[in-house]
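Researcher: I'm preparing a figure for a lab meeting and need a structural model of a single chain. I don't have an experimental structure, so a prediction will have to do for now. The sequence is pasted below. Please return the structure as tokens so I can convert it later.
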Amino acid sequence: MVALSSNGNVVAVGSPASNSSVGNVWIFNNYSGSWQADNNNSPLISFEQEANQEQGFSLSLSADGATLAAGIPGYNEGNGAVSVWERKGNLNSPWVETSRLTGYGNMGNASIGISVAMSSDGKVIYASGMYDSSNTGAVWRFVKSGAYWTQQGSLLMLA
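Model: Understood. Here is the structure written out token by token.
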């Protein structure tokens, strides 16, 4: 599980099986061609921790590397979620977990966050749940407006 910002300055590496499968995400920054671990608060460990939640199973970064979506498919006994992390300022600024996106409309334990994709501006996230609706699968769309994320529209059902 690896994500690279399109500006090439930030890499996120997921380790979903670490820490009793709570999962961690490691951040690396490119300082003038030299890659270094982000020691401000790397690894990123979610404020809500559950065994087997598998944070970092999937990852996506905004173009500037300032927003990270981390899939947590085992969260809430397999319903799943996406953890959103942001940092303000430069590469030395700390990461803050700002949201946990759980979605609604799932049928069964969907494992939301099996895969995630984020828009370049970091304001739209798509998250799939492959086990939704008796393993048919679905995709949730989340949009950020101001400081808040909301699910937009109905699920995209995979049929």
